[in-house]
Task: inverse folding
DNA sequence: TTGTAGGCGTTATCAC
DNA sequence: GTGATAACGCCTACAA
């Protein structure tokens, strides 16, 4: 019952030519007569021939397949990056394998090994929260030819290209905007400080305050995660203080949403009493009746650029050595109702 | 500068045994002595041996890779299905390749061909809006061994398993809920009727009205797409009529969101004046200050079940013939503020 | 312009 | 329990 695929041998037999001729005709080799080429093409189609990429890959060492590892695929940010990646690479004949690390370094490592086994031509990773030991990544760089590219959540490692957004700048302009709207006591709800992106957002916040001669107060920096609940809880806590915040810059849209919910719960007004701005430009931020200001990370573009870095590296690689690139994209501030007081 | 991977030949040379022995040892073959097995294993590790899946796949005909084609990956529904798929298949050693059809039948067909070339072990598809000609799919079924599985957006084709939710039931309970809340003049904003899912939602709406002895009025069924704008525009149109709707059942959450925005714009009250319920349970529906009722499609579960159908088919396939399955999942109604009048 | 033959790394079928 | 060898489907020197 098993249906066998037709191979170039089948075609060569039928046409009484050698497999080499068939292969060459199929690959549009220059030194082959037009008629044989046409004939081979025709019979290939007729016999429903499909090239076996496996065999080709085994021979050439190139699978025309890349892998991407993200914490979870069903988030707006990561699925958008992957969309961009697929759209950049697909026209060049590359397939994209997706893996999820579940934000766990061990699983991430396992997925990485699997992708290596699969002989992918490149691996794109946005590292998990608890990834710290990069030794095995360095080992891969040292012992294999498989390039690794980090996007968004990165670590700096020699030989690895990275594509990120300027989180520092995004946080800076967000904070600056709040300052310009007249907010004085701006709190920051930061994300996991094990990740560079959240470190940078914190620093952007701090530097904006400094540049505008506002005091940087340690107690005003609350280390939250990125959930709605944490936003609610953090807001509950800080509103009990004598010196309440009059604005919140959250490193996460979800936390910002929690903040908004709690403000409403406390019968305070946004943006009059308290201004709010988030980060990521999640779809819901603009859908809300009271829309939430946010910083867009241009994820689709990030995916496309990531793919492009890989494609370029192949071109350049004629020299055998490819130089790592460190690309930083510009974030876009979206000012909405939650922070527009003037 | 190119680093070569170590092969079983390298190991066999170093150990002065045959490649067959090495292969067997590595695969834990029963008839091989414990010492050689241990020895091979040790040197394999020492030499940093990595099995070449390509060669294995070429030999066995199994790539341990599946493909999935969706319109766009960066939507909550599709990325969630893919999440489920990956989580079901990954533990069994399968990789997942993702492709986007951009809701276009031609691109979809091309992606399908590419996946076939890649020799994937199974292809999961949620078809595009304008897919109608299924001849090439039937041809693939007839001429290849690659199973195709439809999820959510399907067509009925012999030999193809499908995993869907009971859209009819989802629409029925949504409409029923509106009726029970006392709404009398319930409109339906339907989706693209080329897709079965939207046909079923329409029919569920109709049958609920019938069962409750409410008139089914043709003019109350508006054929919209699935965007916010279309929701706004459709709402503008119908509110100019003499017999205005007092509730909207929308086949899409985005259209429902547009409806809500326009109702607010018209200074009407939700749910007092007009009740609203959507479909898909998009994250934003529960985040809104005025949360929107919706029907959940359990996308992650749908992905897991889809993967499981494939895995089961492999097991069963010892007989050589695999029977198609038609699985229908139960949707869940989430009643929120936009429709709770009593 | 076309044909022959070897090899990519594994596994499986024979032998011994 | 182990070894030699063919085969998976393709590409590509090298010959002719």
Result:
């Amino acid at each position: 019952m098993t249906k066998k695929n037709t191979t170039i041998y089948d075609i060569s037999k039928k046409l009484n030519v050698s497999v080499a001729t068939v292969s060459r005709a199929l690959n549009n080799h220059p030194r082959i007569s037009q008629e044989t080429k046409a004939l081979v093409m025709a019979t290939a189609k007729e016999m429903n021939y499909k090239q076996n990429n496996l065999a080709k890959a085994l021979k050439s060492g190139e699978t025309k397949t890349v892998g991407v590892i993200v914490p979870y695929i069903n988030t707006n940010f990561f699925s958008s990056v992957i969309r961009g990646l697929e759209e950049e690479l697909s026209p060049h004949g590359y397939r994209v394998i997706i893996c999820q690390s579940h934000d766990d370094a061990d699983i991430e490592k396992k997925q990485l090994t699997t992708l290596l086994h699969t002989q992918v031509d490149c691996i794109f990773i946005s590292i998990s929260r608890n990834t710290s030991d990069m030794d095995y990544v360095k080992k891969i760089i040292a012992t294999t030819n498989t390039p690794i590219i980090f996007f968004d959540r990165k670590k700096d490692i020699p030989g690895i290209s990275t594509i990120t957004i300027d989180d520092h700048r995004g946080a800076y302009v967000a904070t600056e905007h709040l300052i310009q709207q007249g907010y004085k006591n701006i709190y920051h709800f930061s994300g996991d400080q094990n990740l560079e992106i959240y470190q940078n957002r914190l620093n952007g916040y701090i530097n904006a305050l400094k540049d505008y001669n506002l005091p940087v107060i340690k107690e005003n920096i609350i280390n939250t995660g990125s959930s709605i609940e944490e936003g609610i809880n953090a807001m509950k806590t800080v509103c009990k203080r004598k010196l309440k915040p009059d604005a919140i810059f959250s490193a996460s849209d979800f936390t910002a949403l929690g903040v908004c919910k709690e403000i409403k719960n406390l019968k305070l007004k946004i943006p009059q009493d308290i201004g709010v701005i988030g980060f990521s430009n999640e779809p819901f931020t603009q859908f809300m009746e009271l829309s939430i200001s946010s910083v867009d990370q241009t994820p689709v573009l990030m995916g496309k650029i990531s793919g492009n870095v890989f494609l370029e590296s192949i071109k350049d690689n004629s020299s055998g050595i490819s130089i790592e690139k460190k690309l930083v994209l510009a974030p876009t501030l979206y000012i909405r109702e939650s922070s527009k007081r003037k």
